[in-house]
Write a structure and sequence with these properties.
The complex is a heterodimer of chains A (about 90) and B (about 140). Chain A contains two helices and six strands. Chain A is α+β, with helices and mostly antiparallel strands and about 90 residues long. Chain A is globular. Chain B has one domain: Cytidine Deaminase, domain 2 (3-Layer(aba) Sandwich), CATH 3.40.140. In chain B, β6, α3 and β7 form a beta-alpha-beta unit. The two termini of chain B are about 15 Å apart. The interface between A and B is medium-sized, with 20 and 36 residues.
Chain lengths: ~90, ~140
């Protein structure tokens, strides 16, 4: 089933400028794979080569950080909204 | 150029002062693709540090949704430097997440807030003028 995926501005260039797209899958990982199939430019932006969530992004299923759910194995249910946001950090060091 | 609504400027600097001695951080939202910050979202620094910041991710999600509902989008991030100049550190440059964003630094080094804004693209830093509207 299709899920809404909200993309951060920095990734929209890889998805034809769209702020929100749709992806299919039973799990978050499958939905991300489908996303990359549709928009190959997103490869490596959300999931690392090792198949884990990239540390430079925070991925939410509704209001829950996927890292505190089952990560990419998180099961999706109808109506879930996936949000991808950049991790924002820095400092005077 | 980055334009800050007077309320945004006041809220941003106020948040940075309130959070001393920690670094403070937050997001700025405005019309999509634009350079005017109309809304300020003070966000918790989950590092709770005087030297580094990490934006609370859940607060980021909420700010993103709220700005979307207002027809705006996040156009930049601000954070304070409590004892260095208002200039991006090597860490700030390395971790800059979005080349389209405005990166606002609020230095509190000399007691009085100094606000400067930068674009950070592919590791290079370019300062831009900051205009506070309505002052």
């Amino acid at each position: 089933m299709p899920f809404d995926v909200r993309l951060p501005t920095v990734l929209r260039q890889h998805a034809g400028g769209q702020a929100a797209v749709q992806a299919n899958g039973e799990t978050l990982g499958e939905a991300v794979e489908d996303l990359v199939r549709q928009f190959p430019g997103l490869a490596g932006q959300v999931v690392t080569d090792e198949g884990t969530l990239h540390k430079f992004v925070n991925v939410y299923v509704n209001d829950d950080d996927a890292r505190y759910l089952d990560k990419l194995d998180t099961k999706l249910t109808e109506g879930d909204v996936i949000s991808i946001l950049p991790a924002v950090a820095g400092g005077q060091g | 150029m980055l334009r800050l609504a007077a309320d945004v400027h006041r809220q941003m600097v106020g948040h940075c002062l309130d959070r001393l001695p920690e670094e403070a951080c937050g997001l700025l939202a405005g019309p999509p693709g634009g350079s005017t910050a109309e809304v300020c979202y003070p966000v918790k620094n989950t590092d709770q540090s005087a030297r580094t910041y990490t934006l609370d991710p859940l607060a980021h999600l909420r700010a993103d949704r709220d700005s979307d509902e207002r027809g705006l989008e996040v156009i930049g991030v601000f954070h304070s430097h409590t004892h260095t100049a208002a200039y991006p550190s090597a860490t700030d440059v390395e971790k800059a997440p979005d080349p389209g964003w405005h990166y606002v630094l609020v230095s509190l080094r000399h007691g009085q807030a100094v606000v400067r804004s930068f674009r950070i693209q592919e590791g290079s830093v370019a300062e831009e003028p900051v205009v506070v509207e309505g002052l």
